[in-house]
Amino acid sequence: MDKSNEKRREGAISKKSRADMSEDESETDEEECIMVRAATSFFRERERNRYLSVIATYIKTFESWQLMDDNCKMSVIKHLDYKTRCRLERCSRADSKLVKNVPLNVYGIEFMEQSKETGHESTRISITIEFEKDANEKFELFFEQSSNDTVIKWIRTSEYFIPTKFSLTIEKSNYQEEAVKFVEKWMKKCKYGISKITVGMDNFPIETSNISFLPNLKIVKMCIENENKIKKWFEKFPEELEDVQLTNRTWKETSIVVSPDVIDSPQIMNAKKLFFFNKIDLSGELLFQLKATRFSFHSDRLTEKDINQFIRNWTNGKCVEEFKEAVFWSKEERDLEQITSGIELIQWDQTFKREYPEFWESFTKYWTLGVCYQVKSRINPFHSISLNFTGRTVSIYVTGKAKQVNGVKYTRYRIP
Predict the structure, then answer these.
(1) pLDDT digit string, tens, across residues 140-165
(2) Distance CA 287, CA 242 (A)
(3) Which portions of the sequence form the region Disordered (predicted)?
(4) What is the pLDDT of residue 382?
(5) Other C-beta atoms within 10 Å of 291: how many?
(6) b/e string for 219-231 if b means 16 or more Cβ within 10 A?
(7) Which helix or strand (DSSP H or E) is residue 387 part of?
Protein backbone atom coordinates (compact mmCIF):
# COMPACT_ATOMS: atom_id res chain seq x y z
CA MET A 1 0.00 0.00 0.00
CA ASP A 2 1.44 3.39 -0.97
CA LYS A 3 1.81 6.25 1.47
CA SER A 4 -1.13 8.25 0.10
CA ASN A 5 -3.60 5.37 0.58
CA GLU A 6 -2.22 4.67 4.02
CA LYS A 7 -2.63 8.34 4.98
CA ARG A 8 -6.25 8.40 3.74
CA ARG A 9 -6.96 5.24 5.70
CA GLU A 10 -5.58 6.75 8.91
CA GLY A 11 -7.59 9.92 8.28
CA ALA A 12 -10.78 7.94 7.84
CA ILE A 13 -10.16 6.14 11.14
CA SER A 14 -9.48 9.38 13.04
CA LYS A 15 -12.70 10.96 11.76
CA LYS A 16 -14.89 7.91 12.29
CA SER A 17 -17.44 8.25 15.06
CA ARG A 18 -16.09 6.91 18.35
CA ALA A 19 -19.42 5.21 19.00
CA ASP A 20 -18.86 2.90 16.00
CA MET A 21 -15.37 1.85 16.99
CA SER A 22 -14.65 -1.44 18.69
CA GLU A 23 -11.91 -1.49 21.28
CA ASP A 24 -8.76 -3.55 21.46
CA GLU A 25 -9.54 -6.85 23.17
CA SER A 26 -6.36 -6.59 25.20
CA GLU A 27 -7.33 -3.15 26.56
CA THR A 28 -9.84 -2.36 29.29
CA ASP A 29 -12.26 0.36 28.27
CA GLU A 30 -12.42 2.79 31.17
CA GLU A 31 -15.80 4.17 30.13
CA GLU A 32 -17.29 0.67 30.13
CA CYS A 33 -15.89 0.01 33.60
CA ILE A 34 -17.44 3.24 34.88
CA MET A 35 -20.80 2.30 33.36
CA VAL A 36 -20.64 -1.18 34.90
CA ARG A 37 -19.85 0.28 38.33
CA ALA A 38 -22.66 2.81 38.00
CA ALA A 39 -25.12 0.10 36.93
CA THR A 40 -24.03 -2.15 39.81
CA SER A 41 -24.53 0.69 42.27
CA PHE A 42 -27.95 1.45 40.77
CA PHE A 43 -29.18 -2.14 41.09
CA ARG A 44 -27.83 -2.44 44.63
CA GLU A 45 -29.64 0.74 45.60
CA ARG A 46 -32.82 -0.49 43.95
CA GLU A 47 -32.56 -3.83 45.77
CA ARG A 48 -31.98 -2.00 49.05
CA ASN A 49 -35.04 0.19 48.48
CA ARG A 50 -37.13 -2.86 47.59
CA TYR A 51 -35.97 -4.56 50.78
CA LEU A 52 -36.85 -1.51 52.89
CA SER A 53 -40.22 -1.24 51.15
CA VAL A 54 -41.05 -4.83 52.10
CA ILE A 55 -40.07 -4.15 55.71
CA ALA A 56 -42.07 -0.90 55.77
CA THR A 57 -45.14 -2.72 54.44
CA TYR A 58 -44.79 -5.32 57.17
CA ILE A 59 -44.24 -2.79 59.92
CA LYS A 60 -47.16 -0.64 58.70
CA THR A 61 -45.90 2.64 60.18
CA PHE A 62 -44.54 0.79 63.22
CA GLU A 63 -47.86 -0.84 64.14
CA SER A 64 -46.08 -4.22 64.13
CA TRP A 65 -42.84 -2.90 65.63
CA GLN A 66 -43.29 -4.74 68.94
CA LEU A 67 -43.76 -8.07 67.12
CA MET A 68 -40.25 -7.91 65.66
CA ASP A 69 -37.23 -9.35 67.46
CA ASP A 70 -34.22 -7.17 68.29
CA ASN A 71 -32.13 -8.35 65.33
CA CYS A 72 -34.86 -7.36 62.89
CA LYS A 73 -35.33 -4.02 64.61
CA MET A 74 -31.61 -3.30 64.43
CA SER A 75 -31.63 -4.11 60.71
CA VAL A 76 -34.32 -1.46 60.24
CA ILE A 77 -32.58 1.09 62.48
CA LYS A 78 -29.42 0.71 60.43
CA HIS A 79 -31.19 2.28 57.42
CA LEU A 80 -32.98 5.10 59.28
CA ASP A 81 -31.86 8.69 58.88
CA TYR A 82 -30.66 10.66 61.87
CA LYS A 83 -33.93 12.49 62.61
CA THR A 84 -35.97 9.28 62.54
CA ARG A 85 -33.48 7.58 64.83
CA CYS A 86 -33.80 10.46 67.30
CA ARG A 87 -37.59 10.13 67.30
CA LEU A 88 -37.42 6.37 67.79
CA GLU A 89 -34.90 6.74 70.60
CA ARG A 90 -37.45 8.73 72.60
CA CYS A 91 -40.18 6.07 72.32
CA SER A 92 -38.97 3.74 75.07
CA ARG A 93 -35.90 2.67 76.99
CA ALA A 94 -35.68 -0.53 74.95
CA ASP A 95 -35.78 1.41 71.68
CA SER A 96 -33.25 3.89 73.02
CA LYS A 97 -30.87 1.04 73.87
CA LEU A 98 -31.26 -0.51 70.41
CA VAL A 99 -30.64 2.81 68.63
CA LYS A 100 -27.47 3.39 70.63
CA ASN A 101 -26.19 -0.09 69.79
CA VAL A 102 -26.54 0.45 66.02
CA PRO A 103 -23.75 2.60 64.50
CA LEU A 104 -25.02 5.77 62.88
CA ASN A 105 -24.19 6.08 59.18
CA VAL A 106 -21.89 9.11 58.93
CA TYR A 107 -19.86 9.59 55.76
CA GLY A 108 -17.64 12.45 56.87
CA ILE A 109 -16.80 14.90 59.66
CA GLU A 110 -15.17 18.29 59.21
CA PHE A 111 -14.00 20.61 61.98
CA MET A 112 -12.37 23.87 61.01
CA GLU A 113 -11.12 26.97 62.82
CA GLN A 114 -12.39 30.17 61.22
CA SER A 115 -11.20 33.74 61.76
CA LYS A 116 -10.77 37.06 59.99
CA GLU A 117 -7.63 35.62 58.36
CA THR A 118 -9.79 33.00 56.66
CA GLY A 119 -12.33 35.61 55.52
CA HIS A 120 -14.88 35.24 58.32
CA GLU A 121 -16.37 37.88 60.59
CA SER A 122 -15.43 36.28 63.90
CA THR A 123 -13.25 33.63 65.46
CA ARG A 124 -15.18 30.38 65.66
CA ILE A 125 -15.07 26.67 64.91
CA SER A 126 -17.35 25.17 62.29
CA ILE A 127 -18.27 21.50 62.48
CA THR A 128 -19.98 19.74 59.59
CA ILE A 129 -21.50 16.27 59.83
CA GLU A 130 -22.03 14.69 56.40
CA PHE A 131 -24.34 11.67 56.34
CA GLU A 132 -24.00 10.70 52.68
CA LYS A 133 -21.37 11.23 50.02
CA ASP A 134 -22.06 14.09 47.59
CA ALA A 135 -25.50 14.73 49.10
CA ASN A 136 -27.25 17.46 51.07
CA GLU A 137 -27.78 15.15 54.02
CA LYS A 138 -25.62 17.10 56.45
CA PHE A 139 -25.71 19.84 59.08
CA GLU A 140 -23.28 22.51 60.18
CA LEU A 141 -22.76 24.08 63.62
CA PHE A 142 -20.67 27.08 64.68
CA PHE A 143 -19.01 27.26 68.11
CA GLU A 144 -18.15 30.76 69.35
CA GLN A 145 -16.90 32.25 72.61
CA SER A 146 -19.09 34.87 74.27
CA SER A 147 -17.48 36.11 77.47
CA ASN A 148 -17.27 32.98 79.67
CA ASP A 149 -19.85 31.05 77.69
CA THR A 150 -19.97 28.99 74.52
CA VAL A 151 -22.61 29.88 71.94
CA ILE A 152 -23.54 27.23 69.39
CA LYS A 153 -25.25 28.54 66.26
CA TRP A 154 -26.88 26.81 63.31
CA ILE A 155 -29.25 27.55 60.47
CA ARG A 156 -32.28 25.46 59.58
CA THR A 157 -34.08 25.78 56.26
CA SER A 158 -37.83 25.27 56.19
CA GLU A 159 -39.77 23.37 53.56
CA TYR A 160 -40.28 26.76 51.84
CA PHE A 161 -36.46 27.25 51.74
CA ILE A 162 -36.59 30.03 54.33
CA PRO A 163 -33.47 29.98 56.54
CA THR A 164 -33.97 30.44 60.28
CA LYS A 165 -31.13 31.02 62.75
CA PHE A 166 -30.97 29.08 66.02
CA SER A 167 -28.56 29.10 68.93
CA LEU A 168 -27.98 27.69 72.39
CA THR A 169 -25.59 28.69 75.15
CA ILE A 170 -23.40 26.52 77.36
CA GLU A 171 -22.54 28.60 80.39
CA LYS A 172 -19.05 28.80 81.86
CA SER A 173 -17.37 26.85 79.10
CA ASN A 174 -14.67 27.18 76.45
CA TYR A 175 -15.79 27.00 72.82
CA GLN A 176 -12.77 24.99 71.70
CA GLU A 177 -13.26 22.37 74.42
CA GLU A 178 -16.97 22.10 73.58
CA ALA A 179 -16.16 21.68 69.89
CA VAL A 180 -13.71 18.87 70.71
CA LYS A 181 -16.35 17.12 72.84
CA PHE A 182 -18.87 17.41 70.02
CA VAL A 183 -16.49 15.87 67.47
CA GLU A 184 -15.59 13.03 69.84
CA LYS A 185 -19.27 12.41 70.56
CA TRP A 186 -20.10 12.03 66.87
CA MET A 187 -17.09 9.83 66.24
CA LYS A 188 -18.43 7.54 68.93
CA LYS A 189 -21.98 7.66 67.53
CA CYS A 190 -20.82 6.18 64.23
CA LYS A 191 -18.42 3.74 65.92
CA TYR A 192 -15.49 5.52 64.23
CA GLY A 193 -16.70 4.31 60.85
CA ILE A 194 -16.38 7.54 58.86
CA SER A 195 -14.95 7.52 55.33
CA LYS A 196 -13.84 11.17 55.17
CA ILE A 197 -12.27 13.59 57.64
CA THR A 198 -11.21 17.23 57.42
CA VAL A 199 -8.99 18.41 60.27
CA GLY A 200 -8.68 22.17 60.62
CA MET A 201 -8.06 22.68 64.35
CA ASP A 202 -4.43 23.23 65.37
CA ASN A 203 -5.31 22.94 69.06
CA PHE A 204 -7.27 19.69 68.83
CA PRO A 205 -5.80 17.50 71.65
CA ILE A 206 -5.34 14.40 69.51
CA GLU A 207 -2.62 13.14 71.89
CA THR A 208 -5.15 12.71 74.71
CA SER A 209 -8.34 12.37 72.66
CA ASN A 210 -10.54 9.29 73.03
CA ILE A 211 -10.93 9.10 69.23
CA SER A 212 -10.14 5.54 68.24
CA PHE A 213 -8.64 4.11 65.05
CA LEU A 214 -10.69 4.99 61.93
CA PRO A 215 -10.67 1.72 59.92
CA ASN A 216 -12.98 2.82 57.07
CA LEU A 217 -11.27 6.13 56.35
CA LYS A 218 -10.59 6.82 52.65
CA ILE A 219 -10.32 10.61 52.23
CA VAL A 220 -8.17 12.86 54.43
CA LYS A 221 -7.79 16.63 54.32
CA MET A 222 -5.36 18.15 56.81
CA CYS A 223 -5.53 21.93 57.24
CA ILE A 224 -3.10 22.20 60.13
CA GLU A 225 0.57 23.23 60.17
CA ASN A 226 1.98 21.39 63.17
CA GLU A 227 3.82 18.33 61.81
CA ASN A 228 3.73 16.52 65.15
CA LYS A 229 -0.04 16.89 65.16
CA ILE A 230 -0.23 15.59 61.59
CA LYS A 231 1.80 12.50 62.49
CA LYS A 232 -0.37 11.88 65.58
CA TRP A 233 -3.49 12.06 63.42
CA PHE A 234 -1.92 9.67 60.90
CA GLU A 235 -1.64 7.10 63.70
CA LYS A 236 -5.45 7.00 63.73
CA PHE A 237 -5.66 6.43 59.96
CA PRO A 238 -5.25 3.28 57.84
CA GLU A 239 -2.06 3.00 55.80
CA GLU A 240 -4.04 2.62 52.56
CA LEU A 241 -5.95 5.82 51.70
CA GLU A 242 -7.59 6.96 48.48
CA ASP A 243 -7.08 10.72 48.75
CA VAL A 244 -4.76 12.77 50.98
CA GLN A 245 -4.60 16.58 50.95
CA LEU A 246 -2.28 18.74 53.03
CA THR A 247 -3.21 22.40 52.75
CA ASN A 248 -3.98 25.42 54.92
CA ARG A 249 -7.14 27.27 55.88
CA THR A 250 -6.34 30.54 54.12
CA TRP A 251 -5.18 29.27 50.70
CA LYS A 252 -2.38 31.83 50.94
CA GLU A 253 1.23 30.93 50.19
CA THR A 254 3.28 30.42 53.35
CA SER A 255 6.91 29.69 54.20
CA ILE A 256 5.98 26.27 55.61
CA VAL A 257 7.79 23.30 54.05
CA VAL A 258 6.45 19.80 54.72
CA SER A 259 9.39 17.67 55.84
CA PRO A 260 10.39 14.18 54.59
CA ASP A 261 9.35 12.77 58.00
CA VAL A 262 5.71 13.47 57.13
CA ILE A 263 6.00 12.62 53.44
CA ASP A 264 7.60 9.25 54.17
CA SER A 265 4.59 8.10 56.23
CA PRO A 266 2.67 5.16 54.70
CA GLN A 267 -0.55 7.21 54.63
CA ILE A 268 1.11 9.49 52.04
CA MET A 269 3.40 7.06 50.25
CA ASN A 270 0.54 4.58 49.65
CA ALA A 271 -2.22 7.10 48.82
CA LYS A 272 -3.84 6.87 45.38
CA LYS A 273 -4.29 10.64 45.12
CA LEU A 274 -2.13 13.39 46.65
CA PHE A 275 -2.37 17.17 46.84
CA PHE A 276 -0.02 19.48 48.77
CA PHE A 277 -0.67 23.22 48.82
CA ASN A 278 2.38 24.15 50.90
CA LYS A 279 5.89 23.37 49.71
CA ILE A 280 7.21 19.89 50.38
CA ASP A 281 10.77 18.68 50.81
CA LEU A 282 10.43 15.80 48.36
CA SER A 283 13.49 14.16 46.85
CA GLY A 284 13.64 12.26 43.59
CA GLU A 285 14.12 9.07 45.59
CA LEU A 286 10.79 9.52 47.41
CA LEU A 287 9.07 10.63 44.18
CA PHE A 288 9.75 7.28 42.53
CA GLN A 289 8.38 5.44 45.58
CA LEU A 290 4.98 7.15 45.54
CA LYS A 291 2.03 4.92 44.64
CA ALA A 292 -0.29 7.78 43.70
CA THR A 293 -1.95 7.72 40.29
CA ARG A 294 -2.68 11.46 40.60
CA PHE A 295 -0.60 14.00 42.49
CA SER A 296 0.12 17.72 42.62
CA PHE A 297 2.69 19.52 44.75
CA HIS A 298 5.29 22.29 45.04
CA SER A 299 8.84 21.06 45.54
CA ASP A 300 11.96 23.09 44.74
CA ARG A 301 14.13 20.14 45.70
CA LEU A 302 13.05 18.13 42.66
CA THR A 303 15.39 18.74 39.73
CA GLU A 304 14.79 18.77 35.99
CA LYS A 305 16.68 15.49 35.91
CA ASP A 306 14.18 13.93 38.34
CA ILE A 307 11.21 14.98 36.20
CA ASN A 308 13.00 13.76 33.08
CA GLN A 309 13.53 10.37 34.72
CA PHE A 310 9.86 10.27 35.77
CA ILE A 311 8.82 10.74 32.11
CA ARG A 312 11.32 8.10 30.98
CA ASN A 313 9.95 5.67 33.56
CA TRP A 314 6.48 6.08 32.10
CA THR A 315 7.61 5.56 28.50
CA ASN A 316 9.40 2.35 29.56
CA GLY A 317 6.42 1.00 31.50
CA LYS A 318 8.03 1.52 34.93
CA CYS A 319 5.54 4.04 36.27
CA VAL A 320 2.76 3.35 38.77
CA GLU A 321 0.02 1.19 37.27
CA GLU A 322 -3.00 3.25 36.16
CA PHE A 323 -1.03 6.50 36.51
CA LYS A 324 -3.10 9.44 35.20
CA GLU A 325 -1.75 12.83 36.27
CA ALA A 326 1.26 14.61 37.79
CA VAL A 327 1.67 18.35 38.39
CA PHE A 328 5.01 19.79 39.57
CA TRP A 329 5.15 23.40 40.80
CA SER A 330 8.34 25.29 41.56
CA LYS A 331 9.45 28.76 42.63
CA GLU A 332 11.56 29.29 39.52
CA GLU A 333 10.81 28.49 35.89
CA ARG A 334 11.88 25.03 34.83
CA ASP A 335 14.44 24.33 32.07
CA LEU A 336 12.37 22.78 29.31
CA GLU A 337 15.37 21.41 27.42
CA GLN A 338 16.70 19.54 30.44
CA ILE A 339 13.32 18.04 31.25
CA THR A 340 12.79 16.77 27.70
CA SER A 341 16.41 15.80 27.02
CA GLY A 342 16.64 12.46 25.17
CA ILE A 343 12.84 12.13 24.91
CA GLU A 344 11.10 11.90 21.54
CA LEU A 345 8.53 14.70 21.37
CA ILE A 346 5.54 15.43 19.15
CA GLN A 347 4.77 19.14 19.43
CA TRP A 348 1.19 20.30 19.47
CA ASP A 349 0.65 22.43 16.39
CA GLN A 350 -2.20 23.51 14.12
CA THR A 351 -2.21 20.11 12.40
CA PHE A 352 -2.69 18.37 15.76
CA LYS A 353 -5.46 20.83 16.61
CA ARG A 354 -7.28 20.17 13.32
CA GLU A 355 -7.04 16.38 13.68
CA TYR A 356 -8.26 16.29 17.29
CA PRO A 357 -10.43 19.39 17.82
CA GLU A 358 -12.63 17.90 20.57
CA PHE A 359 -9.63 16.81 22.62
CA TRP A 360 -7.96 20.21 22.11
CA GLU A 361 -11.10 22.01 23.25
CA SER A 362 -11.51 19.80 26.34
CA PHE A 363 -7.85 20.19 27.29
CA THR A 364 -7.90 23.99 27.07
CA LYS A 365 -11.19 24.07 28.97
CA TYR A 366 -9.71 22.40 32.05
CA TRP A 367 -6.08 23.57 31.96
CA THR A 368 -4.05 26.58 30.88
CA LEU A 369 -2.41 25.76 27.59
CA GLY A 370 1.33 26.36 27.51
CA VAL A 371 4.04 24.64 25.47
CA CYS A 372 2.62 21.17 24.84
CA TYR A 373 4.10 17.93 23.59
CA GLN A 374 2.90 14.39 23.15
CA VAL A 375 5.21 11.55 24.22
CA LYS A 376 4.61 7.98 23.06
CA SER A 377 5.09 4.87 25.14
CA ARG A 378 7.90 2.56 24.09
CA ILE A 379 5.85 -0.42 25.24
CA ASN A 380 2.81 0.51 23.14
CA PRO A 381 3.28 3.46 20.73
CA PHE A 382 -0.48 4.01 20.65
CA HIS A 383 -0.34 5.01 24.33
CA SER A 384 0.92 8.53 25.04
CA ILE A 385 1.14 11.31 27.61
CA SER A 386 0.75 15.06 27.24
CA LEU A 387 3.41 17.40 28.64
CA ASN A 388 2.23 20.93 29.38
CA PHE A 389 4.80 23.58 30.37
CA THR A 390 3.39 26.83 31.76
CA GLY A 391 6.13 28.88 33.40
CA ARG A 392 6.77 27.41 36.84
CA THR A 393 4.48 24.42 36.36
CA VAL A 394 5.14 21.13 34.62
CA SER A 395 2.03 19.00 34.05
CA ILE A 396 1.92 15.41 32.82
CA TYR A 397 -1.35 13.76 31.79
CA VAL A 398 -2.06 10.33 30.35
CA THR A 399 -4.25 11.34 27.42
CA GLY A 400 -3.57 8.84 24.62
CA LYS A 401 -5.12 5.37 24.81
CA ALA A 402 -4.65 2.53 22.33
CA LYS A 403 -7.86 1.45 20.57
CA GLN A 404 -8.65 -0.39 17.38
CA VAL A 405 -11.36 -0.61 14.73
CA ASN A 406 -11.63 -3.38 12.19
CA GLY A 407 -8.26 -4.69 13.30
CA VAL A 408 -6.52 -1.34 12.79
CA LYS A 409 -5.07 0.32 15.89
CA TYR A 410 -5.30 4.04 16.58
CA THR A 411 -4.89 6.46 19.49
CA ARG A 412 -7.92 7.98 21.17
CA TYR A 413 -7.18 11.22 23.02
CA ARG A 414 -9.11 12.34 26.08
CA ILE A 415 -8.43 14.10 29.36
CA PRO A 416 -7.87 11.75 32.31
Answers:
(1) 999 999 999 999 999 877 656 677 88
(2) 18
(3) 1-30
(4) 94
(5) 16
(6) bbbbbbeeeebbe
(7) strand 384-390
